[in-house]
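Incident log, entry 3
Record: GT2 family glycosyltransferase (349 residues)
Problem: checksum mismatch between cached and fresh output.
Input:
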Amino acid sequence: MSTTLPISVVICAYTEQRWDDVHAAVASVRAQRHAPFEIIVVVDHNPALHARLKASLPDVTVVENREDRGLSGGKNTGVAVARGDVVAFLDDDAVAAPGWLEAFAGHYDDPKVAGVGGLTLPLWPGSTPSGALVDDPVPATTGTRPRWFPEEFDWTVGCTYRGLTPGPVRNVMGGNASFRRDMFPIAGGFSSGIGRSFHKRPLGCEETEFCIRLRQRSPGSELIYDDQAVIWHRVPSERARFAYFRERCYAEGLSKALVTQSVGSQDGLASERAHALRTLPRGVLAGVSDAVKGDRAGLGRAGAITVGLAWTAWGYAMGQYAARRRTRRSRRLVARAGPGDVRGREETT
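Fresh output:
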Protein backbone atom coordinates (compact mmCIF):
# COMPACT_ATOMS: atom_id res chain seq x y z
CA MET A 1 0.00 0.00 0.00
CA SER A 2 1.31 3.42 -0.95
CA THR A 3 2.12 5.61 2.07
CA THR A 4 3.57 8.50 0.09
CA LEU A 5 0.96 8.99 -2.65
CA PRO A 6 0.30 12.75 -2.86
CA ILE A 7 -3.46 13.29 -2.56
CA SER A 8 -5.03 16.73 -2.94
CA VAL A 9 -8.36 17.10 -1.12
CA VAL A 10 -10.96 19.45 -2.60
CA ILE A 11 -13.88 20.77 -0.52
CA CYS A 12 -16.49 22.92 -2.28
CA ALA A 13 -18.26 25.52 -0.12
CA TYR A 14 -20.95 28.04 -0.95
CA THR A 15 -22.78 29.37 2.13
CA GLU A 16 -21.96 30.95 5.49
CA GLN A 17 -24.65 28.73 7.02
CA ARG A 18 -22.16 25.84 6.84
CA TRP A 19 -19.32 27.71 8.54
CA ASP A 20 -18.89 25.15 11.31
CA ASP A 21 -19.37 22.29 8.85
CA VAL A 22 -16.56 23.50 6.58
CA HIS A 23 -14.15 23.86 9.48
CA ALA A 24 -15.07 20.38 10.73
CA ALA A 25 -14.48 18.96 7.23
CA VAL A 26 -11.06 20.61 7.01
CA ALA A 27 -10.12 19.43 10.53
CA SER A 28 -11.04 15.84 9.63
CA VAL A 29 -8.74 15.98 6.59
CA ARG A 30 -5.89 17.37 8.68
CA ALA A 31 -6.32 14.39 11.05
CA GLN A 32 -5.87 11.73 8.36
CA ARG A 33 -3.40 8.90 8.96
CA HIS A 34 -2.37 9.31 5.31
CA ALA A 35 -1.55 13.01 5.41
CA PRO A 36 -3.06 15.06 2.55
CA PHE A 37 -0.65 16.66 0.11
CA GLU A 38 -2.79 19.80 0.23
CA ILE A 39 -6.30 20.93 1.17
CA ILE A 40 -8.17 23.12 -1.31
CA VAL A 41 -11.42 24.89 -0.43
CA VAL A 42 -13.30 26.24 -3.45
CA VAL A 43 -15.86 28.95 -2.68
CA ASP A 44 -18.77 29.16 -5.11
CA HIS A 45 -19.32 32.79 -6.17
CA ASN A 46 -19.50 34.17 -2.62
CA PRO A 47 -16.78 36.83 -2.14
CA ALA A 48 -17.65 37.46 1.51
CA LEU A 49 -17.35 33.77 2.40
CA HIS A 50 -14.13 33.50 0.39
CA ALA A 51 -12.56 36.35 2.37
CA ARG A 52 -13.68 34.91 5.73
CA LEU A 53 -12.43 31.38 4.98
CA LYS A 54 -9.15 32.68 3.63
CA ALA A 55 -8.59 34.50 6.92
CA SER A 56 -9.72 31.62 9.17
CA LEU A 57 -7.86 28.85 7.27
CA PRO A 58 -4.38 30.31 6.61
CA ASP A 59 -2.81 26.88 6.04
CA VAL A 60 -5.44 25.91 3.42
CA THR A 61 -5.59 26.93 -0.24
CA VAL A 62 -8.85 28.89 -0.44
CA VAL A 63 -9.85 29.90 -3.98
CA GLU A 64 -12.94 31.22 -5.75
CA ASN A 65 -14.83 29.13 -8.28
CA ARG A 66 -13.51 30.21 -11.68
CA GLU A 67 -16.25 28.51 -13.67
CA ASP A 68 -20.06 28.48 -13.74
CA ARG A 69 -21.89 28.52 -10.41
CA GLY A 70 -22.46 25.07 -8.92
CA LEU A 71 -20.68 21.92 -7.82
CA SER A 72 -19.34 21.03 -11.25
CA GLY A 73 -17.64 24.39 -11.67
CA GLY A 74 -16.27 24.23 -8.15
CA LYS A 75 -14.84 20.76 -8.64
CA ASN A 76 -13.29 21.72 -11.97
CA THR A 77 -11.66 24.71 -10.31
CA GLY A 78 -10.29 22.49 -7.55
CA VAL A 79 -8.84 20.04 -10.06
CA ALA A 80 -7.17 22.89 -11.96
CA VAL A 81 -5.50 24.10 -8.76
CA ALA A 82 -4.55 20.64 -7.42
CA ARG A 83 -0.95 19.40 -7.62
CA GLY A 84 -1.32 15.91 -6.16
CA ASP A 85 -1.29 12.71 -8.22
CA VAL A 86 -4.80 11.97 -6.92
CA VAL A 87 -7.63 14.42 -6.29
CA ALA A 88 -10.14 13.52 -3.56
CA PHE A 89 -13.48 15.25 -3.01
CA LEU A 90 -15.19 15.74 0.36
CA ASP A 91 -18.54 17.48 0.84
CA ASP A 92 -18.46 20.68 2.89
CA ASP A 93 -21.01 19.24 5.35
CA ALA A 94 -19.16 15.96 5.91
CA VAL A 95 -16.29 14.71 8.05
CA ALA A 96 -13.88 11.94 7.11
CA ALA A 97 -12.82 9.06 9.35
CA PRO A 98 -9.06 9.02 10.08
CA GLY A 99 -8.46 6.16 7.63
CA TRP A 100 -10.32 7.75 4.69
CA LEU A 101 -7.35 8.75 2.53
CA GLU A 102 -5.42 5.66 3.60
CA ALA A 103 -8.17 3.45 2.17
CA PHE A 104 -8.16 5.41 -1.09
CA ALA A 105 -4.38 5.29 -1.43
CA GLY A 106 -4.25 1.51 -1.11
CA HIS A 107 -6.01 1.03 -4.44
CA TYR A 108 -3.81 3.26 -6.58
CA ASP A 109 -0.94 0.78 -6.59
CA ASP A 110 -2.99 -0.88 -9.33
CA PRO A 111 -2.48 1.17 -12.53
CA LYS A 112 -5.92 0.14 -13.83
CA VAL A 113 -7.66 1.96 -10.99
CA ALA A 114 -8.73 5.43 -12.17
CA GLY A 115 -10.93 6.32 -9.21
CA VAL A 116 -12.05 5.15 -5.76
CA GLY A 117 -15.15 6.04 -3.79
CA GLY A 118 -16.06 5.30 -0.20
CA LEU A 119 -18.83 4.64 2.30
CA THR A 120 -20.91 7.69 3.20
CA LEU A 121 -22.94 7.37 6.40
CA PRO A 122 -25.72 9.80 7.38
CA LEU A 123 -25.61 12.17 10.34
CA TRP A 124 -29.32 12.50 11.04
CA PRO A 125 -30.92 15.35 13.03
CA GLY A 126 -29.78 15.14 16.64
CA SER A 127 -26.28 13.92 15.74
CA THR A 128 -23.03 15.31 17.15
CA PRO A 129 -22.81 19.02 16.17
CA SER A 130 -20.18 20.16 13.69
CA GLY A 131 -18.39 22.29 16.27
CA ALA A 132 -17.60 19.17 18.31
CA LEU A 133 -16.27 17.38 15.24
CA VAL A 134 -13.46 19.93 14.81
CA ASP A 135 -11.61 18.27 17.71
CA ASP A 136 -12.69 14.68 16.98
CA PRO A 137 -14.10 13.78 13.54
CA VAL A 138 -15.72 10.55 14.79
CA PRO A 139 -19.28 11.44 15.87
CA ALA A 140 -20.42 10.28 19.30
CA THR A 141 -23.97 9.96 17.97
CA THR A 142 -25.34 9.81 14.43
CA GLY A 143 -28.80 11.08 15.36
CA THR A 144 -32.17 9.48 14.67
CA ARG A 145 -33.20 8.16 11.28
CA PRO A 146 -36.91 8.72 10.47
CA ARG A 147 -38.51 5.31 10.84
CA TRP A 148 -40.18 5.55 7.44
CA PHE A 149 -36.91 6.35 5.62
CA PRO A 150 -35.70 3.30 3.61
CA GLU A 151 -31.95 2.64 3.43
CA GLU A 152 -32.38 1.81 -0.25
CA PHE A 153 -32.93 5.55 -0.83
CA ASP A 154 -30.12 6.98 1.30
CA TRP A 155 -28.74 8.41 -1.95
CA THR A 156 -31.44 11.08 -1.66
CA VAL A 157 -29.45 12.57 1.24
CA GLY A 158 -26.05 12.04 -0.38
CA CYS A 159 -25.24 8.77 1.40
CA THR A 160 -24.42 5.21 0.45
CA TYR A 161 -27.57 3.19 -0.15
CA ARG A 162 -28.46 -0.43 0.55
CA GLY A 163 -27.60 -2.61 -2.42
CA LEU A 164 -24.17 -1.15 -3.15
CA THR A 165 -21.40 -3.72 -2.56
CA PRO A 166 -17.61 -3.18 -2.39
CA GLY A 167 -15.65 -3.73 -5.58
CA PRO A 168 -15.79 -2.41 -9.16
CA VAL A 169 -18.67 0.00 -9.83
CA ARG A 170 -20.00 2.10 -12.70
CA ASN A 171 -19.68 5.33 -10.74
CA VAL A 172 -18.68 6.57 -7.31
CA MET A 173 -20.60 9.12 -5.22
CA GLY A 174 -19.30 12.64 -5.70
CA GLY A 175 -19.03 13.73 -2.05
CA ASN A 176 -16.73 10.84 -1.15
CA ALA A 177 -14.59 10.18 -4.19
CA SER A 178 -11.07 10.31 -5.59
CA PHE A 179 -9.59 10.17 -9.09
CA ARG A 180 -6.14 10.14 -10.63
CA ARG A 181 -5.45 13.71 -11.68
CA ASP A 182 -4.21 12.62 -15.10
CA MET A 183 -7.65 11.17 -15.88
CA PHE A 184 -9.26 14.61 -16.08
CA PRO A 185 -7.63 15.62 -19.38
CA ILE A 186 -8.79 12.28 -20.81
CA ALA A 187 -12.37 12.34 -19.51
CA GLY A 188 -12.86 16.11 -19.49
CA GLY A 189 -14.17 17.95 -16.44
CA PHE A 190 -17.50 17.79 -14.66
CA SER A 191 -20.36 19.04 -16.82
CA SER A 192 -21.83 22.38 -15.73
CA GLY A 193 -25.20 21.42 -17.23
CA ILE A 194 -25.67 18.58 -14.75
CA GLY A 195 -25.78 18.59 -10.95
CA ARG A 196 -26.21 21.17 -8.20
CA SER A 197 -26.11 24.81 -9.28
CA PHE A 198 -28.33 27.82 -8.84
CA HIS A 199 -31.28 25.69 -10.04
CA LYS A 200 -34.11 25.52 -7.49
CA ARG A 201 -34.50 21.74 -7.79
CA PRO A 202 -32.04 19.47 -5.91
CA LEU A 203 -30.44 18.06 -9.06
CA GLY A 204 -27.45 15.71 -9.02
CA CYS A 205 -25.54 13.13 -11.08
CA GLU A 206 -22.58 15.29 -12.16
CA GLU A 207 -20.26 12.59 -10.80
CA THR A 208 -22.28 9.81 -12.46
CA GLU A 209 -22.00 11.41 -15.89
CA PHE A 210 -18.29 12.10 -15.34
CA CYS A 211 -17.55 8.51 -14.28
CA ILE A 212 -19.39 7.03 -17.25
CA ARG A 213 -17.61 9.41 -19.63
CA LEU A 214 -14.28 8.47 -18.05
CA ARG A 215 -14.92 4.76 -18.59
CA GLN A 216 -16.08 5.33 -22.16
CA ARG A 217 -12.92 7.26 -23.04
CA SER A 218 -10.60 4.99 -21.05
CA PRO A 219 -12.18 1.52 -21.37
CA GLY A 220 -9.41 -0.25 -19.45
CA SER A 221 -9.88 1.88 -16.36
CA GLU A 222 -11.65 0.70 -13.22
CA LEU A 223 -13.64 2.54 -10.56
CA ILE A 224 -13.74 0.96 -7.11
CA TYR A 225 -16.11 1.30 -4.15
CA ASP A 226 -14.33 0.66 -0.82
CA ASP A 227 -16.47 0.66 2.31
CA GLN A 228 -13.36 1.25 4.47
CA ALA A 229 -13.08 4.81 3.12
CA VAL A 230 -15.68 6.20 5.55
CA ILE A 231 -17.16 9.68 5.88
CA TRP A 232 -20.18 10.97 7.79
CA HIS A 233 -22.50 13.34 5.90
CA ARG A 234 -24.84 15.73 7.70
CA VAL A 235 -28.56 15.51 6.91
CA PRO A 236 -30.39 18.77 7.81
CA SER A 237 -33.83 18.39 9.34
CA GLU A 238 -35.55 19.67 6.18
CA ARG A 239 -33.94 16.86 4.16
CA ALA A 240 -35.23 14.24 6.57
CA ARG A 241 -38.82 15.05 5.60
CA PHE A 242 -40.96 13.15 3.15
CA ALA A 243 -41.60 16.26 1.01
CA TYR A 244 -37.86 16.61 0.34
CA PHE A 245 -37.52 12.86 -0.25
CA ARG A 246 -40.18 12.99 -2.94
CA GLU A 247 -38.76 16.17 -4.54
CA ARG A 248 -35.24 14.72 -4.55
CA CYS A 249 -36.45 11.56 -6.28
CA TYR A 250 -38.17 13.61 -8.99
CA ALA A 251 -35.04 15.74 -9.46
CA GLU A 252 -32.92 12.60 -9.73
CA GLY A 253 -35.13 11.44 -12.58
CA LEU A 254 -34.61 14.76 -14.34
CA SER A 255 -30.87 14.46 -13.77
CA LYS A 256 -30.78 10.92 -15.13
CA ALA A 257 -32.47 12.15 -18.30
CA LEU A 258 -29.63 14.65 -18.74
CA VAL A 259 -27.06 11.92 -18.11
CA THR A 260 -28.54 9.60 -20.76
CA GLN A 261 -28.56 12.42 -23.28
CA SER A 262 -24.83 12.81 -22.69
CA VAL A 263 -23.60 9.22 -22.44
CA GLY A 264 -26.48 7.06 -23.73
CA SER A 265 -29.17 5.10 -21.92
CA GLN A 266 -27.33 1.77 -21.87
CA ASP A 267 -24.51 3.05 -19.65
CA GLY A 268 -26.57 5.84 -18.12
CA LEU A 269 -29.21 3.53 -16.62
CA ALA A 270 -27.38 0.22 -16.14
CA SER A 271 -26.99 0.49 -12.35
CA GLU A 272 -30.46 2.01 -11.93
CA ARG A 273 -32.13 -0.91 -13.71
CA ALA A 274 -30.40 -3.43 -11.45
CA HIS A 275 -31.32 -1.43 -8.33
CA ALA A 276 -34.97 -1.08 -9.39
CA LEU A 277 -35.39 -4.72 -10.40
CA ARG A 278 -33.56 -6.41 -7.52
CA THR A 279 -32.88 -4.23 -4.48
CA LEU A 280 -36.11 -2.22 -4.34
CA PRO A 281 -38.54 -5.18 -4.56
CA ARG A 282 -36.62 -6.86 -1.74
CA GLY A 283 -36.90 -3.65 0.26
CA VAL A 284 -40.68 -3.53 -0.21
CA LEU A 285 -41.05 -7.16 0.86
CA ALA A 286 -38.82 -6.56 3.89
CA GLY A 287 -40.92 -3.55 4.90
CA VAL A 288 -44.15 -5.52 4.65
CA SER A 289 -42.59 -8.39 6.57
CA ASP A 290 -41.47 -6.00 9.33
CA ALA A 291 -45.02 -4.66 9.55
CA VAL A 292 -46.44 -8.16 9.90
CA LYS A 293 -43.98 -8.76 12.75
CA GLY A 294 -45.23 -5.68 14.58
CA ASP A 295 -43.08 -2.84 13.21
CA ARG A 296 -45.73 -0.56 11.73
CA ALA A 297 -43.07 1.71 10.24
CA GLY A 298 -42.27 -1.15 7.86
CA LEU A 299 -45.32 -0.19 5.80
CA GLY A 300 -44.00 3.37 5.70
CA ARG A 301 -40.65 2.16 4.34
CA ALA A 302 -42.35 -0.05 1.77
CA GLY A 303 -44.58 2.85 0.73
CA ALA A 304 -41.63 5.26 0.53
CA ILE A 305 -39.76 2.86 -1.77
CA THR A 306 -42.79 2.64 -4.04
CA VAL A 307 -43.31 6.40 -4.11
CA GLY A 308 -39.59 7.08 -4.56
CA LEU A 309 -39.36 4.77 -7.56
CA ALA A 310 -42.51 6.23 -9.11
CA TRP A 311 -41.38 9.84 -8.65
CA THR A 312 -37.92 9.09 -10.02
CA ALA A 313 -39.43 7.42 -13.08
CA TRP A 314 -41.81 10.35 -13.53
CA GLY A 315 -38.93 12.83 -13.35
CA TYR A 316 -37.00 10.82 -15.92
CA ALA A 317 -40.00 10.73 -18.26
CA MET A 318 -40.49 14.49 -17.95
CA GLY A 319 -36.79 15.07 -18.56
CA GLN A 320 -36.89 12.95 -21.70
CA TYR A 321 -40.01 14.76 -22.91
CA ALA A 322 -38.35 18.14 -22.40
CA ALA A 323 -35.29 16.95 -24.31
CA ARG A 324 -37.39 15.80 -27.26
CA ARG A 325 -39.17 19.17 -27.32
CA ARG A 326 -35.83 20.98 -27.40
CA THR A 327 -34.65 18.77 -30.25
CA ARG A 328 -37.81 19.38 -32.29
CA ARG A 329 -37.58 23.14 -31.66
CA SER A 330 -33.96 23.19 -32.83
CA ARG A 331 -34.85 21.28 -35.99
CA ARG A 332 -37.66 23.71 -36.77
CA LEU A 333 -35.30 26.67 -36.35
CA VAL A 334 -32.77 25.06 -38.68
CA ALA A 335 -35.46 24.29 -41.25
CA ARG A 336 -36.76 27.87 -41.18
CA ALA A 337 -33.29 29.35 -41.45
CA GLY A 338 -32.43 27.40 -44.58
CA PRO A 339 -29.09 25.84 -45.57
CA GLY A 340 -27.48 29.16 -46.51
CA ASP A 341 -28.32 30.83 -43.21
CA VAL A 342 -27.12 27.82 -41.24
CA ARG A 343 -23.86 27.68 -43.17
CA GLY A 344 -23.33 31.38 -42.60
CA ARG A 345 -23.94 31.02 -38.88
CA GLU A 346 -21.47 28.15 -38.66
CA GLU A 347 -18.79 30.26 -40.39
CA THR A 348 -19.21 33.08 -37.87
CA THR A 349 -19.23 30.95 -34.67
